[in-house]
C-alpha cells in the first residue's frame, strides 16, 4: 500500500537523527524494512540502546528485533566482550545472543571467553540443546576402538572343517578386524628342510622401528595422500575423532596377538593359540612389522585393518614370496633380514592403490592355478617327505624314496599351471582371502 511505503522513510529519519524514540522507530523498521542496507550504519546505536532496556521488557524487544537479528548479533557479541560495559549490559547482550543465534553457535562460542560463571553456564546449556551440537556430542561419545570381544566361529563352519579330516579346526577370533581373515595376522612359508615357519604380525616391532627413525623422519607420499601424514611423528599421533592414537591402538592390538610378553605369550593370544594347536616352538615363528589403524566401517562401529601394507598377507609359491611393497625402507629391510635364513626369493609388488586402500593385499587379491588336490594328509609325515604330495606320485611315502628339499614333481606342475616364472598375479580375483 502507498502509506506502507511512506512509513519506513519517516522511521529512518528518526533513527538517523539519534534523538527521540530511536528504539521504537528501529523496531518499526525491523518489521517494515529489515533488509535495507542502512541497518549497517545504525546497528551499533540500536544494539547499545537494546542492552539498556529494563530486563522486564526484554521479551518484547527481543521479539520485535527478531527480523534483524543477523545484523545485530556481531555488535551484541562485541558488547558482551567489552570490559567497559556494566555487568547488566553484558548479561542482557548475552540473553539476546542466546535467543537470536539460530543457525549455528559461532557467536555463542565467542561469548564463552568473556562470560561470567552464570553466563558460561547459560551458554553451555544452550549449546548442548542445539541439534548439531547434540549430534556432535553423541558422535564424540562413540568409542573409536575395535570390538575386542571374542566370538566363536559358526557351528556350521566348524562342522564343515572337521569333516575334511585334515586336522582339528583352530578357532581364532578375528571379529576385531574389518575383513576378519586369518591372512591379516599370520601366514606360513617353507623352510629349507620342508617344514613350515609361521610369520605373524607384530605391531610392537613396527612401533619400535618407527620410533627409532625419529618423529621428524619424512614418509613416502603414499602415506600423505592416504592418511594425511608426512612424518613418523604425525603418523604415530594420528587420531580418529580425537580419541585413540595409532600408537595406543597398536599397543592394544599387540596385546591381542601376543599378550604382555612376546617370548611367553598369554593364553588366548593369537601366538599362543597357534603354538598349542600346531605344537610350534618359538623358533618356528617369525615376527614381522605391521602397523594397524582403526577404521569406521559402519556408523559408530570401528575395526582394525593394516595401515602399512601387511607383510603376512603375501603369496607363497614354492620358494618365491610375493610381498606387498611397504614404502618404508626400514620395514622392508627388517622383513628381508627376518626371512634371510629361509632361502626364499622375495618379490616386492606395489598393491597400494589396487588392494591395500581397499582393505586387502596380495593374498586377498590373487590366486594361483593348481591341479586339483585329491589326497589327504591325515598324518604328519616324516621330515624330508613331501606334505602335499600329488596323486599317483612315485615319490610318495611308502611308494618311493623322497628325500629332496623341493619335490620336482610338484615344482613342475606349479610351473606348468602358472605359465611363467613360477607365479602370476591375477588382478580382480578375491579367492585367496
What are the SSEs and their pairings?
Layout: H1 2-17, H2 22-32, H3 39-50, H4 58-64, H5 69-81, H6 87-100, H7 106-112, H8 117-129, H9 131-140, H10 155-162, E1 186-190, E2 196-202, H11 203-213, H12 221-227, H13 232-237, E3 239-240, E4 244-245, H14 246-258, H15 270-278, E5 285-289, E6 292-298, E7 301-306, E8 315-317, E9 320-324, H16 329-338, E10 345-349, H17 408-418
Parallel strand pairs: 2-5, 9-10
Antiparallel strand pairs: 1-2, 3-4, 6-7, 8-9
Helix pairs in contact: 1-2, 3-5, 5-6, 5-7, 7-8
Uncertain residue ranges: 373-391, 396-407, 409-433
Mean pLDDT: 78
Give, in order, the helices and strands. HHHHHHHHHHEEHHHEEHHEEEEEHEH
SS element count, helices? 17
Rg from Cα: 35 Å
Secondary-structure content class: alpha/beta
Query: Could you give the count of β-strands?
Result: 10
- The side-by-side strand order for the widest beta sheet comes to 1-2-5
Largest sheet: 3 strands, mixed
Taken as a percent bin, the fraction of beta residues is: 5-15%
Outline type? elongated
Instruction: Give the N-to-C terminal Cα separation.
Output: 77 Å
Query: What share of residues is helical?
Result: 40-55%
Give a structural overview.
This protein is of the alpha/beta class. Helices cover 41% and strands 11% of the residues. It contains 17 helices and 10 strands. Strands 1-2-5 form a 3-stranded mixed sheet. It has a 3-stranded mixed sheet with strand order 8-9-10, with no helix packed on it. A hairpin with a 3-residue loop joins strand 3 and strand 4. The protein is elongated, with a radius of gyration of 35 Å. The N and C termini lie far apart (77 Å).
Amino acid at each position: 500500500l502507498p502509506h506502507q511505503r511512506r512509513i519506513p522513510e519517516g522511521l529512518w529519519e528518526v533513527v538517523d537523527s539519534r534523538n527521540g524514540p530511536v528504539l521504537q522507530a528501529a523496531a518499526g523498521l525491523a518489521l517494515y524494512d529489515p533488509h535495507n542496507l542502512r541497518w549497517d550504519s545504525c546497528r551499533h546505536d540500536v544494539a547499545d540502546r537494546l542492552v539498556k532496556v529494563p530486563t522486564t521488557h526484554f521479551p518484547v524487544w527481543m521479539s520485535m528485533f527478531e527480523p534483524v537479528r543477523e545484523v545485530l548479533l556481531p555488535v551484541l557479541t562485541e558488547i558482551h566482550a567489552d570490559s567497559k560495559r556494566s555487568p547488566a549490559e553484558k548479561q542482557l547482550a548475552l540473553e539476546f545472543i542466546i535467543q537470536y543465534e539460530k543457525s549455528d553457535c559461532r557467536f555463542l562460542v565467542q561469548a564463552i571467553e568473556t562470560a561470567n560463571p552464570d553466563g558460561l553456564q547459560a551458554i553451555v546449556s544452550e549449546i548442548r540443546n542445539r541439534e548439531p551440537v547434540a549430534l556432535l556430542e553423541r558422535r564424540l561419545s562413540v568409542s573409536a576402538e575395535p570390538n575386542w570381544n571374542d566370538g566363536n566361529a559358526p557351528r556350521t563352519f566348524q562342522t564343515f572343517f572337521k569333516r575334511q579330516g585334515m586336522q582339528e579346526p583352530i578357532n581364532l577370533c578375528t571379529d576385531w578386524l574389518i575383513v576378519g581373515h586369518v591372512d591379516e595376522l599370520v601366514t606360513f612359508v617353507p623352510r629349507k628342510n620342508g617344514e613350515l615357519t609361521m610369520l605373524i604380525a607384530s605391531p610392537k616391532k613396527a612401533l619400535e622401528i618407527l620410533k627409532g627413525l625419529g618423529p621428524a623422519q619424512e614418509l613416502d607420499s603414499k602415506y600423505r595422500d592416504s592418511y594425511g601424514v608426512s612424518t613418523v611423528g604425525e603418523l604415530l599421533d594420528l587420531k580418529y575423532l580425537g580419541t585413540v592414537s595409532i600408537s595406543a591402538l597398536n599397543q592394544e592390538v599387540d596385546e591381542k596377538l601376543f599378550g604382555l610378553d612376546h617370548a611367553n605369550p598369554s593364553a588366548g593370544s593369537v601366538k599362543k593359540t597357534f603354538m598349542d594347536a600346531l605344537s610350534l616352538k618359538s623358533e618356528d615363528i617369525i615376527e614381522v612389522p605391521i602397523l594397524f589403524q582403526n577404521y569406521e566401517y559402519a556408523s559408530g562401529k570401528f575395526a582394525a585393518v593394516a595401515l602399512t601394507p601387511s607383510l603376512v598377507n603375501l603369496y607363497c609359491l614354492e620358494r618365491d614370496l610375493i610381498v606387498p611393497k611397504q614404502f618404508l625402507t626400514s620395514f622392508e629391510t627388517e622383513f628381508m633380514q627376518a626371512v634371510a635364513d629361509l632361502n626364499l626369493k622375495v618379490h616386492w609388488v606395489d598393491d597400494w592403490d589396487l588392494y591395500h586402500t581397499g582393505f586387502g593385499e596380495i593374498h586377498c587379491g590373487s590366486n594361483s592355478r593348481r591341479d586339483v588336490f585329491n589326497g589327504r594328509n591325515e598324518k604328519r609325515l616324516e621330515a624330508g617327505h613331501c606334505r602335499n604330495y600329488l596323486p599317483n606320485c612315485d615319490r610318495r611315502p611308502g611308494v618311493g624314496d623322497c628325500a629332496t628339499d623341493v619335490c620336482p614333481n610338484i615344482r613342475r606342475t606349479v610351473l606348468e599351471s602358472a605359465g611363467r616364472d613360477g607365479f602370476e598375479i591375477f588382478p580382480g580375483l578375491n579367492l585367496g582371502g
